[in-house]
Amino acid sequence: MSQAAEAPHRIAIVGGGAGGLELAARLGKKLGKSGKAHITLVDAARTHLWKPLLHQVAAGTLDSYSDEMEYLAIARENHFNFRLGRMDGLDRARKEIFLAPTLDENGVELLPRQSVRYDTLVLAIGSQTNDFGTPGARENAIMLDSLDAAEHFHRQLVNSCLRAQAKRGPNNGQRFTVTIIGGGATGVELSAELHMTAKIITSYGLANFDPEKDLKIVVVDAAPRLLQALPERLSNAVTRELQAIDIEVHTNEMVVEVSKDGVKMGSGKFIPSDLVVWAAGIKAPDFLKSLDGLETNRINQLVVKRTLQTTADPSVFAMGDCAACPQGDGLPPVPPRAQAAHQEAALLARSLLRILEGKSPLKFTYRDRGSLVSLGNYTTVGSLMGAIARGSVFIEGKIAKLMYWSLHKQHQVAVTGFFHTMLAILADAIDWARSPRIKLH
């Protein structure tokens, strides 16, 4: 009697963000289709939206329904399995992860508590907003780190415009003030998108709504300048653009309290605010701090080696925003950026294939390709680095805007393939011609 065939290697990926979904798609094509491995992607949501687009959803310049991708459909096309659920525990000895019960919109249990077995585990859980324990932040500010939060903000914005039109808003004729805490890419891009949205809204019958008189947008950051992590020339160009469209910028201002009435800063300044968005700082989910002995840093990121293996367990990998990966040579850890997650997904796909062949995993080297910041229809600015130039090259305008758009399309190609991405571009063009320029509900 012939010996039974060896069971396929089980690879579980937790987190369907930019890196996790790309990794699942790559592994599904390389290993899942041939039956060499059983690939499972776990996520608490049913659909995927590229996180850098959240500020457009919040402003209403992007309808999330047109850009969301269904995990089940992607799994079928790319030969991996999808499990709906939120991870809340790990047993490394049994090589098993645990998923909390999933509830429907009425609070009724949809799925019971589940478990998923693995031989190799990849944690790509991403990050969430870090309010640094600021009093009132969680209660009185919207944390722009999820699709639900972005859509909630948008509804609040549209409602404020409708109240302004009827002249019975809470401000008694004063300007509706949106304060954005955080001068990083998310905060800066959101401020410009909001200004553009307000101008467009006036063309849809809101006769009494004047964005110059009825809306005030404020950006606050504790750093000496906006986009502190990016080149100073890029920061200065963005600041000039924002000030040109009358967006108020406060730098070197530490927020010490967020109340129902507004934002208080350490200098004593107070900004009366009707809507506050917190977009300053990130941290990995809190449950990682006590995840069966895995090492974490002060913002809950899993500490990994250059191979992306956790320091406590070589069969558990971490990537993306939830991982603290060293760069060596005295450099800080790999930054939590979409391009880093994309590069890590590509490397892990190769590494896991090598592990199945009995070889050692590869070491990750981050290559900074530069930065791009989109200010809606006003402009896009950025700096290109790496193979394009020695040092960096500053770009802006249409070229920068095209490159910003191409980053999203590269992600779609990695997940759905070139043909489906081209079809999506065609569908977007048709939808743009027939739909309002902004979402009005």
What does the secondary structure layout of this molecule look like, with pairings?
Layout: E1 9-14, H1 18-32, E2 37-43, E3 47-48, H2 54-59, H3 64-67, E4 69-70, H4 71-78, E5 81-84, E6 86-91, E7 96-100, E8 102-103, E9 109-111, E10 114-117, E11 120-123, E12 128-129, H5 137-140, E13 142-143, H6 147-166, E14 176-181, H7 185-201, H8 211-214, E15 215-220, H9 232-244, E16 248-250, E17 255-258, E18 262-265, E19 270-272, E20 275-278, E21 282-283, E22 302-303, E23 316-318, E24 323-324, H10 338-356, E25 370-375, E26 379-385, E27 392-396, H11 398-416, H12 418-434
Parallel strand pairs: 1-2, 1-11, 2-5, 11-23, 13-20, 14-15, 14-20, 15-16, 22-24
Antiparallel strand pairs: 3-4, 6-7, 7-10, 8-9, 12-21, 17-18, 18-19, 25-26, 26-27
Provide the descriptors you would attach to this structure in a database record.
5-stranded parallel sheet; FAD/NAD(P)-binding domain; globular; alpha/beta; 2 domains; single chain; 441 residues
